[in-house]
Amino acid sequence: MSINIGVLAIQGDVQENIISTQKALDDLGIDGSVTNVKTADDISKLDGLIIPGGESTTIGQLSLVNSSLKVMKEKIEQGMPVFGICAGMIMLAKIADDRIMGKINQPLLNLLDIKLERNSFGRQKDSFEAEISMDSIKIPKFRGVFIRAPSISEANSDIEVLAKFNEKIVAIKKGNIIGTSFHPELTKDVSLHKYFLNLVKSFAN
Amino acid sequence: MLPLAGERKDAKGIIFEKSESSEISRGTSTLKRGFAHMLKNGVVMDVTTVEQAQIAEEAGAVSVMVLDKLPSDVRKAGGVARTASIRIIQDIMDSVTIPVMAKCRIGHVYEAKVLQESDVDMIDESEVLTPADEHHHIWKWDFTTPFVNGARSLAEALRRIEEGAAMIRTKGEPGTGNVAEAVTHIKKVNDELRAIKSIYDSGDYQDLVRMAREFKVSYEVVEETARLGRLPVVNFAAGGIATPADAAYLMSLGCDGIFVGSGIFNANDAQERARAIVLATTFWEEPEKVKEAQKMIDERQSMLGLDVNTLELRMQERGGSA
Lengths: 205, 322
What we know:
heterodimer, A: alpha/beta, 13 strands, 35% strand, B: alpha/beta, TIM Barrel, two-stranded antiparallel ribbon
């Protein structure tokens, strides 16, 4: 069967994720398509969703306005695989605090029992690239592009930690959900997108 | 994957260092241009106070731009317009979670250094302020903080990218509440992109060399841009946007996002207008939603606006020939 992947196109770097996903589909030879999705209706037809990088406050507020937030939550709870990147991972969390400002009230999907710290590594000048490893999913070397990135300060024991950077959790998995602090779509390496596609395929079967 | 045309890997602004046991690099083109990509489909709002910045964030802005005066007030005040007070910039950085940008004068290397030291997330080398150097823009490769620059044509955009700009915006005509110039600029850039793309596709490299000479930029940047058929950085609309319909119109012309200057906080319905412009930018492809956004504002509360043909000061011409 053909799998239908969507990249949430409310705000952020949608196109880069479409390009990376298309390349991953081609590399794997998986029968499937990737499109941008915005409405509740679009999302309800998906087999897998990528929530891209952007501003989580903006993505949260606007997906609340057109009811896509509600449908995303329902679909993910029913088992649709989701890949949250940076702002996308923030969206998946139960609690997001800002490193400087502390508690913030912003619409979230509240799916992962994690405590997340926004802007965890500092402001843009402190944004960085570094090698990270995700040995448990057989990606031993990956170029992590961290842009005003969040990190996870506390994770419930049912959450699998895929990668840490300087003792901070920067990639996680729980069942059909994966989240990264860094931006795989800004690099040429599509191994994480491939990993996600295989996850979608296994859930679709 | 990110287009990196014109990237300088030996730039002074790139910092390699050890963080605990890891080797990291900061200030690379991927990080600078990538930051701008995260703002796509969003609205950046000009603000002068903490209160305005909070209104912007609550309305769903992706970033705020701190100025001493809104562009329309810069016009009224006259005199020399400089970068905003550092204390106000820092107070705003402490009050919102979204990125904070600030403007420096064209060519003013030290206003830019001061802004970089203040930890702003992006620097706008802006024609709204009085230029400090009539002949040069800042060599932005020397900075770790990314820059955005204005452009009226592909030639200007590529010159700024060659100097290290990580993001481009149209110049428009700031502080007028009149979108006509921004519309002209984005259409011109898009027309010129189509033209060089067709030259590239035809394989006439001599003609591309001619274009590079005309644009006053290196051949490599022209070739890579022609191959892509688009700018190798994000391109936003700016200058004169005052209503939700203005924002939606510019998105429909292929802009990646919107800067709103005087349009929001010089209107008498700033809160509703900020929200409405965000909604229209996000949902520009759905006219029904743009109508709903437009309904949230009252045209009688819009800034009066200025006819661009009778202006004494045309900010867009600043730095244009350099």
